[in-house]
Design a protein that fits this description.
By secondary structure, the protein is an alpha+beta fold. It has eight helices and six strands, in the order βααββββαβααααα. Strand 3 and strand 4 form a beta hairpin. The longest helix is centred in the last third of the chain and has 28 residues.
């Protein structure tokens, strides 16, 4: 969440303050939701029914709350479930309190009250876009590099490695969703640059849409099919498509950089 760009942060509560607010945090959250804020934070999925770690292991993960229902005593949220699907769901007030009050890795625990920043006026900063695309191609990240962090092209190469590992019977759908969403966002941005005259070669936009984004959608649903059938032939096709997309996308982005 970038303050001032997409959202405005109307308040933040760190883990150390949870205890002081308990159990009034429920009423605090409802009051902020009534004012048009979303709630963004981290909780322990050990306490959230339907989540893969539920009652099995402690796992701190981000969440969003966009509403509540006092008649049912629940907050309204959305996220991935144990079956790998992304959907809306309810969190009982008591389960929510348990999930945020848990003492696991407290340094990762906080919540923000945010709302869409309607006053933000976007503009196209071509030098910055070009710099970011070069960072993507060069696998350069903004944080301190480490052996376990990968950025840009390298990150998608790591996805191919992950999918190619021996005895692969389970694929984390969050990786495949992120892969598809990245292609969707890039597809939108290249179309936007073309529409505003920053890219003269209009075939770049068409080819990215057909060769990259549409194939990433196909890939996502093919992965669901693999998880159902556990068919090695399907997995081999998935790995090949990821490899083909990675190679073609790298070249297309190089072409976009040249145009800019």
């Amino acid at each position: 969440l970038k303050e001032g760009l997409c959202v405005k942060i109307g308040g933040q509560i760190v883990y150390e303050a949870f205890q002081a607010l308990y159990p009034d945090l429920i009423e605090k959250n409802k009051a902020m939701l009534n004012q048009g804020y979303y709630i963004w934070g981290t909780y322990d999925e050990f306490y959230i029914p339907g989540k893969l770690p539920y009652q099995r292991r402690h796992f701190i993960h981000s969440y969003v709350i966009y509403g509540y229902d006092d008649n049912e005593g629940v907050f309204k949220s959305a996220g991935y479930f144990a079956d790998g699907r992304y959907n809306r769901f309810n969190i009982k007030y008591d389960d929510y309190l348990d999930s945020i009050m848990c003492g696991e890795v407290p340094h990762q625990r906080k919540l923000d009250y945010v709302h869409i920043n309607s006053a933000y006026e976007g503009y196209i900063d071509v030098p910055h876009i070009r710099e970011q695309l070069l960072n993507f191609l060069n696998s350069y990240g903004c944080s301190n590099p480490s052996a376990i962090e990968h950025y840009g092209v390298s990150a998608w190469q790591q996805l191919e490695t992950y999918l190619s590992r021996d005895e692969n019977t389970m694929i984390d759908m969050r990786y495949m969703r992120s892969y598809m969403e990245h292609k969707r966002i890039m597809d939108h941005r290249i179309k936007h640059l073309t529409m505003h005259g920053y890219l003269n070669n209009q075939t770049l936009s068409l080819e990215y849409h057909e060769a990259i984004f549409l194939k990433s959608m196909q890939l996502f649903y093919m992965t669901i099919k693999f998880l159902i059938k556990n068919d090695t032939a399907i997995l081999n096709r998935i790995v090949k498509i990821v490899r083909d997309i990675n190679i073609r996308e790298e070249q297309l982005i190089k072409d976009v950089v040249s145009e800019l």
